[in-house]
Amino acid sequence: MDISVNDYLFLSTMLFVVGLFGMLLNRSNIIYLLMSLELILLSVNLNFVAFSTFLQDYTGQIFVIFILSVTATEVAVGLALLVLLFKNNNTISPDVISKMKG
Amino acid sequence: MIVNIAFYIVSSILLIASIVVILSKNPVHSVLSLVVVFFNAAIIFIFLKAEYLAFVLIIVYVGAIVILFLFVVMMLDIQKEVSSKFKIKNIISATIILFLMMVEFYFILKINYSIYSPSPTYLISLDNEYNTIKGIGFLLYTNYSYVFIVCGIILTAGIIGVITLTYTKSTNINRQSVFLQNSRKNTVKTVKVKNHEGVN
Predict the structure, then answer these.
(1) What is the ipTM of this complex?
(2) Between residues 92 and 111 of chain B, which touch chain A (CB distance below 8 Å)?
(3) Can you tell me the distance from the alpha carbon of B172 to that of B199, in angstroms, rounded to the nearest whole number?
(4) What domains appear along chain A, each with residue ranges and CATH number?
(5) What is the model's pTM?
(6) B120 CB contacts (<8 Å, ≥6 apart)?
């Protein structure tokens, strides 16, 4: 009995759901939001690699490399914004980022 | 059979660690269980015969990104933030959306995807002649070279953005400004030195 592609898809779906749940649950803490985003993007990568192996095509793995670099940049910029937010407002709640509302 | 058991053990560890990531009260515990999540995802990539991406996942994610998270968590004193976690409003909305997503994903996952055969127009097959890193490298430098260049541009933009965001010029350090020093007109004058005479 071999592991089918549906098992990998189920795992990736569960990881996506956990990441989304964490994102909705920890809305008062940006660092948890970023970590949940990491989980979601990891599930997307898992999906790409699973279909890349089962369809015998390397294109999915190329896309994983692309997503990886975008994720690295996004996390670096997000953490820089987090440091700035903590320096200016002494809190990391995203509720204080509402000054542009007027 | 043993591969199946290993797959189920690894994926259950991955899911449990990801639940610990989002539910833990201490951010340091969350970051450390994120390391566990990425290690198990790397093992699953090895199950999928994508060794290069498994090692990249360990080196890039565990070696760089999670350490970045750990630095930020340790640098900022956010222990007082975690006392008022999990508002009841957030729990209710998250559960409703989670339920809806579960129903949608159930109908998507009912399709048996393994009946689809490999597409006949694939570029390079995953056979023994090409191992993973050779195939990815071949594709990355030929068919997808624009993607590679765009990756470089995105990373450069990220570096510039982060440096401009966090760079603060400190005012309590005395620095020598060479240009201002040399361009003072009243104290510095230019002398044309004659041969064998020197400057008087």
Answers:
(1) 0.91
(2) 93-94, 97-98, 101-102, 105, 108-109
(3) 38
(4) 5-99 (1.10.287.3510)
(5) 0.83
(6) none
